[in-house]
Design brief:
The protein has two domains: 26-40 and 200-359, Pectate Lyase C-like; 51-198, Single-stranded right-handed beta-helix, Pectin lyase-like (Pectate Lyase C-like), CATH 2.160.20.10. Helix content is 10%, strand content 30%. It has helices at residues 2-17, 51-57, 76-81, 131-134, 335-338, and strands at 61-65, 91-95, 99-101, 104-106, 113-117, 124-127, 142-144, 150-152, 155-158, 175-177, 182-185, 188-190, 196-198, 202-206, 209-212, 214-219, 222-226, 229-232, 239-244, 254-258, 261-263, 269-273, 280-284, 287-288, 297-298, 310-314, 330-332. The strands form three sheets. It has an eleven-stranded parallel sheet. The longest helix has 16 residues, at 2-17. Pathway: Glycan metabolism; pectin degradation; 2-dehydro-3-deoxy-D-gluconate from pectin: step 1/5.
Length: 359
């Protein structure tokens, strides 16, 4: 009985008090993200956290990584290795300022890990792995296989040279996430082609920055991006922002971008291309610069997928949001059609989504 009361108390604290930075929601629909970006602040909402998460959050441990030797470890890799397989408590790896030149993997057996940097002096995780060396999806600077992962205030970069169209295997990941129920806050993902492999699982991103050239957000995650920036690096004749990897219309993967910004110049970028037969990508309340091509979307020279893609837009603005010029198979969504994708329910947030810690 005492344990049950304690778990309910923890749930109430997390869900009612600590969801700082998530949308302010109307009482009529407590999970829908509001149209007014100025209302995207704090909120109070109710729900039920996964019992394993409640247990993990009730017993936190902080590990400090400092390059100067003043912490528990000098490298992030050493800190991750110190977490036991089968871990059941929230492990917060506090990373000091500086550049950490490492190729970091968080194994599936190590859930509940948080990588945390100082927002005033964000550390950089950097490596230069490429597809030619490791294979595309294994080239990342940081690869996360485990569940309940959180990252806050980090720069994650792949330092490999920009692909020039001549070198084979030049694509290079900064980050890959395969685990379920991951959240990133105030993180910057830097690369060129294939910067971020949003591979599988339910994921949440807030106040993040992702840059690249070709397919720089790709994979089959079911992900909600809030108040984040997608920056197209200039210099290529054509750029592709997303390559969402849904295989068929019954798969549950998809990317929803809400109150985001698409930046860059030159009308070179497609919002998405049909890398797989049934990609699902929705932009809502998004400000788009003139980097976005008028047609908006690409069938990847496979006209047969026009019947299976789900490309949607809702109340976006800016010179790149030219609804009248879009390809015919893209959808200008009505509120009833977009409501699923502008809701925290899209990623079942009430079961697992928590704010970043304060360290």
């Amino acid at each position: 009985m005492a344990r049950n009361l304690r778990e309910r108390a923890i749930q109430g604290i997390f869900l009612s008090c600590l969801l700082v930075g998530l949308p302010t929601i109307s009482l009529a629909d407590p999970n829908t993200i509001p149209a007014d970006v100025n209302q995207v602040n704090g909120c109070e909402r109710k729900g039920t956290l996964d019992p394993a998460l409640v247990n993990a959050e009730s017993s936190q441990k902080i590990i400090r990584v400092r390059k100067d030797g003043s912490g528990d470890f000098k490298t992030v890799t050493e800190a991750v290795k110190s977490v036991p397989a089968g871990n059941t408590q929230r492990i917060i790896i506090s990373i000091g300022p500086g550049v950490y030149w490492e190729k970091i993997t968080i194994e599936r057996t190590k859930p509940f890990i948080t990588l945390y940097g100082d927002p005033k002096d964000m550390p950089t995780l950097k490596f230069d792995g490429t597809a030619a060396q490791y294979g595309t999806v294994y080239s990342g600077t940081l690869s996360v296989y485990s569940n309940y992962f959180v990252a806050a205030n980090l720069i994650i970069a792949n330092a490999a040279p920009r692909p020039d169209g001549k070198r084979l295997g030049a694509q290079a990941l900064a980050l890959r996430i395969l685990g379920e129920k991951a959240a990133l806050y105030n993180c910057r993902l830097l690369g060129f082609q294939d910067t971020f492999n949003d591979d599988t699982g339910k994921h949440f991103f807030k106040d993040c920055y992702i840059e690249g050239t070709v397919d720089f957000v790709f994979g089959d995650g079911r992900s909600l991006y809030l108040n984040s920036e997608l920056h197209v690096i200039p210099g290529d004749r054509v750029a592709m922002i997303t390559a969402q990897g849904r295989q068929n219309q019954n798969d549950n993967g998809g990317y929803s971008f809400v109150h985001c910004r698409v930046t860059g110049t030159g009308q070179i970028a497609f919002l998405g291309r049909a890398w797989m037969p049934a990609p699902r990508v929705i932009f809502s309340y998004t400000t788009m610069s003139d980097v976005v091509r008028p047609e908006g979307w690409s069938d990847n020279f496979k006209p047969q997928v026009q019947k299976t893609v789900f490309y949607g837009e809702y109340q976006s603005v800016g010179p790149g949001a030219q609804a009248n010029s879009r390809v015919k198979y893209a959808k200008a969504l009505a509120y009833g059609q977009v409501q699923e994708y502008i809701s925290l329910d899209f990623i079942e947030a009430a079961k697992w989504l928590l704010p970043p810690p304060r360290v």
